[in-house]
Specification:
It contains 19 helices and four strands. By secondary structure, the chain is mainly alpha-helical. It has one domain. Keywords: Cell membrane, Glycosyltransferase, Membrane, Transferase, Transmembrane, Transmembrane helix.
Length: 482
């Protein structure tokens, strides 16, 4: 027991810190923050049954609404006392709208909880791909010290669900690769990979990069003895068997993932039977069924018809969305933390409080520099041989999540970099873990610098009130990144 505690206590400390940081000040500010104006409405729609339209799949909103329902909190009909003594309902109409602290705590609870779980899953993935305790621990603390992941998991937002499911999909992918081909464990971990892939894309379509990465890795594995040896050390390199297991694996992941993707839409349609603000995006037949009820039609729309139409509309709106935004930014600036996104502010006498979506500057710059260094290293034969296969996989993951934004015409924001940042930070953590035994002092200095950068940026993560002089210094950082 003592030996187990000695080995695991750093990870226990990581877990305690992860949940502490994510739940600290969770109901503060007791006001609507940034895209809570949208997601708050979407979650509330499941309580009124009035149809809404969103460009993202429904699972994330359903999860938050389901948790609120279990706790007995209604995000729409909770009474809000006004200063004049009157009482109003919650509308989520504008940033800064006052909301009861209890209601916000419940609505923000699940993202915060998954934010803590994400740190632990991230550390677990680092362990699975490195079998290095130092690398797993360093990676866990690096992601813990990133302000962007902290902010995006403290409010009524869904990105952290997608990132958590994506990390678990890769965890189970590496586990299934290490099992004896077509054995019970092989099938079990493959199925779990497929389920979590389905959950990933059920939050946001950007999670589709997951299957792209897995597909490329499986394809290269067929012709690479080195990659096959890394992924499946228990199995002999036989190209025919590897080809068959790769094709079977890919088909299973796609098929099961698709069926998992279908399920939230079924619940979504059942919970939104009435006409609502989302009608205008749908066809006349869809609108009429919402307005008058399916029972009034000889041939009501089937689930498949509704599912197909909604996904087509989501695709069309994603493709044609062209509105500009003052905090919009382009993909090539994201690795340098360019253009933090303004989420919330409050100015009171003698102090100022602001919330920005901003990555840990030191961590993002250093991880981006490592990516560039490794890409240059691949230009030489000696450099390519020096890199382990996992580094290539993580670089692939980074680029697969970032480069598609070259083709994206719609407005995009710094938070779209989060999936790529996940791979960059994981890669950086593994690299530091490999250097730990020989360069403890240097690695310690780097981690201390990252921790300092985290704490300097922390007031913008929590919206902590600052006196004018310190607030001005903090704003210089934002101006520099803009």
């Amino acid at each position: 027991m003592k030996k187990l505690l000695k080995i695991s206590w750093p990870f226990i400390a990581l877990a305690i810190l992860a949940f502490t940081l994510h739940f600290a000040f969770l109901s503060y500010p007791s006001q609507v923050v940034f895209d809570e104006v949208h997601f708050g409405k979407f979650v509330g729609a499941y309580f009124t049954g009035r149809y809404y339209f969103d460009i993202h799949p429904p699972l994330g909103k359903l999860m938050i609404a389901g948790f609120a329902k279990l706790t007995g909190v209604n995000p729409i009909f909770a009474p809000v006392p006004e200063p004049n003594g009157s009482v109003r309902g919650i509308t989520f109409d504008k940033i800064g709208e006052a909301i009861p602290a209890k209601t916000l705590f419940i609505l923000r609870f699940l993202p915060a909880f998954f934010g803590g779980l994400f740190v632990l899953a991230f550390s677990w993935l680092a362990w699975l791909i490195s079998r290095n305790k130092a690398a797993a621990l360093i990676a866990g603390f690096l992601i813990l010290l990133d302000n962007a992941f902290l902010v995006q998991s403290k409010f009524i937002l869904v990105d952290i669900f997608m990132l958590f499911f994506e990390i678990l999909a890769f965890c189970f992918f590496f586990l299934y690769q290490r099992q004896k081909s077509f054995g019970v464990k092989w099938w079990s971990y493959l199925t779990l990979t497929a389920i979590f892939f389905g959950l990933t894309i059920s939050i946001k379509w950007t999670g589709l990069a997951t299957i792209g990465i897995i597909g490329v890795v499986l394809f290269i594995k067929i012709g690479s003895r080195r990659l096959a040896g890394y992924l499946s050390p228990l199995n002999e390199f036989r190209r025919k068997i590897i080809t068959r297991e790769s094709l079977v694996g890919l088909v299973i992941i796609v098929v099961i993932g698709f069926f998992v993707y279908l399920i939230p839409f079924s619940v979504h349609f059942q919970l939104l039977p009435h006409s609502g603000p989302g009608d205008a995006f749908m066809s006349w037949t869809f609108q009429q069924e919402l307005k008058y009820g399916a029972q009034n039609y000889d041939e009501p729309l089937t689930f498949w018809q509704k599912f197909t139409e909604l996904n087509q509309k989501m695709w069309q709106y994603n493709s044609t969305l062209s509105a500009d935004h003052p905090f919009g930014s382009r993909w090539y600036g994201w690795p340098l933390d360019h253009k933090p996104v303004y989420y919330w502010n409050s100015d009171v006498p003698q102090s100022s409080a602001k919330i920005y979506f901003i990555g840990n500057p030191a961590l993002w710059w250093l991880s981006a520099a490592l990516i560039i260094f490794l890409l240059f290293q691949t230009l030489s034969k000696k450099g390519r041989r020096a890199l382990e296969p996992i580094f290539y996989i993580l670089i692939l993951g980074y680029l697969a999540n970032l480069l598609p934004f070259i083709l994206v015409k719609r407005v995009s924001f710094l938070y779209h970099y989060l999936p790529s940042a996940t791979f960059a930070i994981l890669l950086f953590g593994l690299w530091l873990g490999k250097k730990w035994r020989t360069d403890k002092a240097f690695i310690s200095i780097l981690i201390a610098l990252i921790a300092l950068s985290f704490f300097i940026t922390l007031p913008f993560s929590y919206g902590l009130p600052l006196p004018p002089a310190i607030n001005q210094l903090e704003l210089h950082l934002i101006q520099f990144l803009n």
